[in-house]
Amino acid sequence: MVESDDGLPHSRRAFFREAFTRLVQPVTEYLDTQIEERLPAEQVLLQPPGALPGEAFLETCLRCGNCVDSCPADAIQPLQSDQPNLVGTPYIDPDEQPCVVCDSLECMQVCPSGALQKLSVHEIQIGLAEVNYDICLRSNGVDCRYCVDTCPIGERAIRLDSEKRVEVLSAGCIGCGVCQYQCPTVPKSIVVRPIQKYTEEQ
Question: Domain tally for the chain?
């Protein structure tokens, strides 16, 4: 029997190689599937609290950075974009850091142009949370309550319904993104959809 350079007969070497391939291939395919499923098709960005609707916000915002600098949670960031009309506009990515609905709502107070209107907490409409029950842990027998327990608005915005499923109340949800940030599933079982269309791939 002819030996290979590593001292193993060709037949044994081929056997081990085939066995290793059979062992590793399913794992590789599984990981590839998980990676593909975890990649978002589109990154959803939210405007800061009190933002004027649509084009009015883009036309009024000075890109001065006051709201960015004043945000105690570092939730507001300046947008990097290939589109000139979006460059430097403030945004919130709830996957990275949601709006925590701070007591002072300082971002609104320091806006010099009125692009961010001074509103009370319950007048804010950043977005509206949506639940994907197919992947929500509660639908799979897990007593998860992160989105409900961490919401800064409380049961006025989100609660468990009579069937113990997560229920978002449109009249109370302001779209701060805390529920999305705290959700432990990948992809997220609860996602905030912006009231104003404001999506951009960074």
Answer: 2
